[in-house]
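WARN no homologs supplied; continuing
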Amino acid sequence: MKWYANFLVGCLVGAVGLAVLGMVAMPKLMLTVQESRYATVDETTAALKSAIEAQGWQCPAIRNMNASMAKEGVVFESPIRIVELCKAEYAKEVLTDSPEVSTMMPCAWGVYQQDGKVWISGMNMALMGKM
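OK structure emitted
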């Protein structure tokens, strides 16, 4: 086999390996998860709503995923909420320049209970901004 065939096979294997690594690593990099200091999902969502509004942002909705999904016959054992947040002036700036990102708006945090602890998850906005 000529050297360039080995080179091409090496490049192909490297590209496939990099793609697989990216598919495995990206979901973990795209999300941030931290443990809540509050004991329950409801306490955590109430505290998030207060903090959002105290900073001059809006909290358009707190979505109770347990109730929403129960209507469709899907039952979750642990409570799950989605806390939406938005600041109109930032939304206008982003949507004026890049309306395609509307699919990710409004911004939201997930609040859920797992293994007896309450967790808050959100998009890694620093990473998403670089993309």
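Residues 39 and 118 are 7 Å apart (CA to CA).
OK
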